[in-house]
Amino acid sequence: MRRGRSDRGSRDRSTGRRNRYERTGTPPGMAAVEVTAIDDAGELVGESPAVPGAAIRVLDADGGEAPLEVGDRALMRLSTDAEGAIEGRLFRRLSRIAREIVGIVETTGDTFFLRPSRRSADRDQPTRLKLDPGDLTLADGDMVRAELDRGRPLAQPRARAVERLGSSTDPAAIALSIAAELELPTVFGPEALAVAERATQPELGERTDLRDLSLVTIDGADARDFDDAVWADPEPLADGGFRAVVAIADVAHYVRPGDPLDREALERGNSVYFPDRVIPMLPEALSNGLCSLRPDEDRASIAVELFFDANAVLKRWRFARALIRSRARLTYEQVQDAADGRADALTAPLLESVIRPLYAVYEKLAAARRKRGTIELELPERRVLLDGEGKVIDIVQRQRLASHMLVEELMIAANVAAARALADKKLPCLFRVHDKPDPVRLEALAQYLERLSIGWSRTAKKPGDFTRMLERITEPSLREQVSGFVLRAQAQALYQPDNLGHFGLNLRHYAHFTSPIRRYSDLVVHRLLIHHEKLAGTEDGRAYDVEQLDRFGKLVSATERKAVQAERQALARYTALYMADKEGAQFTGRVIGVQRFGLFVVLEGTGAEGLVPVSTLGDDAFHFDEQHQALVGVRYGDTFGLGDSVTVTLTDVDIVIGQLAFRIESHERAHAAELARAAWAKAGPMRKGRHMPAPRRGGRRRR
Question: Is residue 700 part of a domain?
């Protein structure tokens, strides 16, 4: 697949950072600049027609604004530094000029049109463009990537197809189209690939030899890389405490600061996971090869030995660059089955020496977590099941097993050790921070819970308060619904050198250390540890300053958001594709969102979400009761609100944008709708009559 626009410039960066910022005369004080690349120091580079041929170093925005990304346009104040290099500082963002678009081919006679697969916030964006097929053979329903030619400034753009991504009914086209829409880099440059192909497994040398330690990897059955291995000491320490070892792939050994691999890894920021493939942060030779902790193969790692007291409080740690040899590649299901008395041929020999000690450690860490108090949300994660030909056969909820939490607790402990190793010495670190919730959001949550008659103190500020409130809700669907609102009340987690702590985990120090194959943030932390802890091979480390870490944090926070967006879009489109042949069928579900224009419903089983347009609710005009989060029929008083149990008919499926539409056949009011109904009944005939809008026509009347 062809590279996205964000790959432009990554192939022709010259060596020497300062050389790329060409010296010129005095630039204009203000100019429009397009961000075109990221240099080897992680800084953004831009171009402007006001200074033809010059590369502009894009400085961080003032006022804490979200960082610019490759492809963004902005009005910038231009200046020159002491050496004559041009610098630009954000003054005002400008709209991005789309040069490419992804959509579905529609034909009318011999004429081709393109319907964009991604809705634009630009109201002037046409819903259909005339399409030149170019040299491609296209058919109705094909997904294509097209270049846009805008011609005159106010003219409607024309599209020219440059790549056929597949049929819109082909699951394989989903990841390709989303990657093209979001400009995700999908092809590594030849220099980066060459560096990856030349990489070799290091010898033991000065590394700590941990090859006799019975480390194992525990991942999902569909995992594509294995970057962490774990071990727990079956023997208690002299003080009644215990110890464990977490070994992480030593990506820093292969990806050196500023080299082609490093630049492309930073540009990606994260790996992006789809049901049928992954867009990796690193080339396959590393991500699935030398950096994957395969069983019975020597692998370079950064290991941390963790020492806990009898109350599972982390007391000390020791980092080392090591050589390890995983005993087995285990799945969560295998490990859980073994712990539950159903060991197989692979886990039976490891049960007493490896698996049971890990569970013993987990139970102590889990008890300490409960005592500490963290936010525990019940939000189901959906998994798309594919057959051998890549067709969607089902969408199921992922199981949440004790084995998942076992690995999670050990990863959290390793992340805390990495953060504290730097913070305790007052050294710069790229923290994973999760700030306290905004008071305005907490007030909105309190009002919502009040409408549901769920007790909640507006002064509650501790993470455990949210969990205790959720535990009081006995009805599973309502608990899941409220968990979603609790999540939306939280601040967004991000990366930055300013340590605000992690509110959700109730931790003062937290950094991401355990997944450097797929997160650039973790690679940065590895380099800091190598340098400041003086680990073997210190030349692989780096002493980043706060300004550099702040820049990295903004970049990887932005790429993380884009990766999450891509994965959510993929799930929505796979779900729509799975439901496409079920139009007219009935399903049970519940209302999870209420807006003026309709109700959002989630189906039982698949978790498919869709919209019930307000126009289909009945022969009435419906008023949005914001206080009770319900739609109220102004004449007949029928009400639809959050948590209502519904039976719906699937009326429309748009597989291009991943959208479903439903019609309600029957519903059972939940608490919110009952409150709204009572409020309607108290309003009196004047409110129910002439003071409200006239009823809509069409649909069935419900009482």
Answer: no
Contact 169, 391 (CB under 8 A): no
386 three-state secondary structure = strand
415 and 303 both lie in a single domain = yes
Q: What's the gap between Cα 539 and its chain centre?
A: 32
Task: Answer yes or no: is 179 within a domain.
Answer: no
Tell me which residue range forms the domain holding 107: 100-168
Q: Are 254 and 261 in contact (CB under 8 A)?
A: yes
Residue 701 domain-assigned? no
d(CA 372, CA 337): 29
Cα–Cα distance between 477 and 67 in angstroms, integer?
Answer: 38
**If you compute the radius of gyration of the chain from its CA atoms, what whole number of angstroms results?**
28
Task: Give the CATH number for residue 83.
Answer: 2.40.50.140
Cβ contact 216:349 at 8 Å: no
The answer to whether residue 184 sits within a structural domain is no
CB 259 within 8 A of CB 324: no
Closest CA to 252 of 513, 563, 546, 554: 513
- 3-class secondary-structure state, position 616: helix
Kindly tell me the burial class for residue 688, based on how many C-beta atoms sit within 10 Å of its own C-beta (0-12, 13-18, 19 or more).
Answer: middle
Give yes or no: residues 311 and 231 share one domain.
Answer: yes
Residues ≥6 apart with Cβ < 8 Å to 340:
none
The pLDDT tens digits of the residues spanning 298-332 come to: 999 999 999 999 999 999 999 999 999 999 999 99
Q: What percent of the chain has pLDDT over 70?
A: 89
3-state secondary structure 174-204: HHHHHHHHCCCCCCCCHHHHHHHHHCCCCCC
Is pTM, for the whole model, over 0.85?
no
Query: Are 446 and 461 a contacting pair, CB within 8 Å?
Result: no
**What is the number of structural domains in the chain?**
5
Q: Check residue 498 and report its DSSP letter.
A: S
